[in-house]
Specification:
The complex is a heterodimer of chains A (about 280) and B (about 190). With about 280 residues, chain A is α/β, with parallel strands linked by helices. Helices cover about 40% and strands about 25% of the residues of chain A. Chain A has a single domain, classed as Putative neuraminyllactose-binding hemagglutinin homolog like domain (Double Stranded RNA Binding Domain), CATH 3.30.160.180. Chain A is elongated, with a radius of gyration of 29 Å. Chain B has one domain: Rhomboid-like (Rhomboid-like fold), CATH 1.20.1540.10. In chain B, strands 1-2 form a two-stranded antiparallel ribbon. The chains are: A alpha/beta (about 280), B mainly alpha (about 190). At the A-B interface, strand 9 and helix 7 of A face helix 5, strand 2, helix 7, helix 8 and strand 3 of B.
Chain lengths: ~280, ~190
């Protein structure tokens, strides 16, 4: 009898432990750092180089998420592309930006450094690259309602688990040739929610995506504002001919041509039309 | 009239299309030289702005209708299909600094010269009037080449008038008229 009771007790204990193991508590994070990507083996700070950055408008820009480190499962590539397309759409009508290329993350090697960045820039024909680094932390906890999970049915109807997802996106704009950081802008978001034990991972995944979307919403106006500041700074520096500014603007060789005869095309076409009409009449 | 209507319709639809459609179809030097050969034809069908499109499409419609009536639909279609890539290729050679080209006025110049040459042959009494029209077009092209009359154009600021395209289109039309025999029987004259 004692053996039977002991077996029942251990079975119950294992079952309860199993239920408890279903609850994802603690925290997890997804990170892709621009410093890890560009300076993978740096033991010291990179040396300051007094080179001049030459900007040739209309500039060709590439935009890409930096590769994440380790085995963490970050944002799927399709979602990354959608986010990048939003940035691209918000910058399409700026005259000094010639084109914006959305670059898939697979083209960047983890810890690839500037050598990898230059390869990609040559491949896509870009002068300037926007590197998006990200850091998303998810905290998961149980609330008081989780006690009802013991009823088994509770695990499917009671929102006893909650998540708190904090996301930071950071856009660093680099001139590829001179390796100079032109400007940067951050975007932050915080998403909170709760879910049942049964669909916690699905809800949390949706929350993580929402976190990226909200951070991107915050990032785009910041990026516009920083671009305007950079433009004003550039103008002031170049107008006052500050040698130390380190920037030079050059017109790209070549020009755009338009097939156009102006307003004169209409009277000329009508005159020819009149001649064609007159040619059909007897003299 | 069918070709004139079709050309005007296609250009009109493309003028209303999204900006990236225009980028995909414009005569982009790098793209054309890297195998995007459709640009040799489509570069003549897209425009920089609504005003540019409106003027170019109106002139193209009138001149294509004249050419079609004078030469017939088949000859006009053949002239357009052959002339468009020839103009584009010659433009790439003649203006190596031109990275992008949009506009249908080179086709207009080609059709206008072809139609005018046909009238020249058929109605010698109108040659003086045709010479005036041709002379004005020639002077305008020279002014564009020398950089005069910059405010006379409908292309947006920063875009240069591609006068070379007009000259190539006119030259190709003259060669075409010399090589192609005129229709056996001219259209019935109006009473």
């Amino acid at each position: 009898m004692k053996v039977l009771i002991a077996m029942l007790a251990s079975t119950l204990l294992l079952a309860l432990a199993g239920c408890a193991a279903l609850n994802p508590h603690g925290s997890g994070n997804h990170t892709g750092s621009v410093v890890d990507y560009l300076y993978p083996d740096a033991k010291e700070a990179p040396q300051m180089q007094l080179s001049t950055t030459t900007l040739r408008p209309p500039v060709r820009v590439g935009i890409v998420f930096v590769p994440g480190g380790g085995w963490n499962i970050g944002l799927p590539e399709t979602d990354k592309e959608k986010l990048l397309e939003r940035v691209k759409a918000s910058f399409t009508n700026i005259p000094y930006i010639g084109s914006i290329e959305v670059i898939p993350s697979q083209y960047l090697r983890p810890r690839g450094g500037f050598a990898n960045l230059e390869q990609v820039a040559r491949m896509f024909g870009i002068d300037i690259v926007v590197l998006l680094s990200y850091d998303q932390v998810q905290f998961s906890d149980s609330n008081m309602l989780s006690v009802l999970y013991w009823t088994i049915v509770g695990a499917y109807v009671i929102h006893g688990d909650q998540y708190d997802i904090q996301t930071m996106l950071d856009a660093s704009v680099f001139d590829v040739q001179s390796h100079k950081l032109l400007f940067r802008a951050p975007g932050l978001s915080r998403v909170k929610g709760s879910a049942t034990s049964a669909n916690f991972s699905e809800q949390a995944r949706a929350g993580r995506l929402e976190g990226y979307n909200k951070a991107m919403e915050a990032l785009i106006p910041q990026l516009h504002a920083e671009l305007e500041k950079f433009k004003a700074r550039l103008k002031t520096d170049i107008n006052t001919k500050k040698a130390a500014s380190g920037y030079r603007i050059e017109n790209r060789p070549g020009y755009s041509g338009g097939g156009d005869f102006g307003w004169l095309s209409l009277p000329l076409a009508l005159a020819l039309g009149g001649a064609a009409y007159a040619a059909r009449r007897k003299p | 009239m069918r070709i004139a209507l079709l050309l005007a319709l296609v250009c009109g639809v493309l003028a209303c299309a999204a900006e990236n459609v225009g980028q995909l179809l414009a005569l982009d030097r790098a793209g054309a030289l890297h195998g995007q050969i459709w640009r040799l034809w489509t570069g003549h069908l897209v425009h920089y702005s609504a005003q540019h499109a409106a003027l170019d499409i109106t002139a193209l419609f009138v001149l294509a209708a004249i050419a079609e009536r004078e030469m017939g639909a088949r000859a006009t279609g053949a002239l357009l299909l052959l002339g468009a890539p020839v103009i584009s290729l010659c433009l790439l050679l003649a203006a190596p600094g031109m990275l992008l080209y949009k506009g249908s006025s080179a086709l207009s110049a080609m059709l206008g010269v072809a139609g005018g040459a046909w009238i020249w042959r058929r109605a010698p009494r109108l040659r003086a009037a045709l010479m005036v029209v041709g002379g004005v077009a020639l002077v305008k092209t020279l002014c564009d080449a020398l950089g005069y009359l910059p405010g006379f154009s409908s292309v947006p600021g920063g875009v240069r008038v591609a006068w070379q395209a007009h000259a190539i289109g006119a030259a190709f039309a003259l060669a075409w008229v010399m090589l192609v025999k005129p229709p056996a029987a001219p259209h019935a004259a109006h009473p």
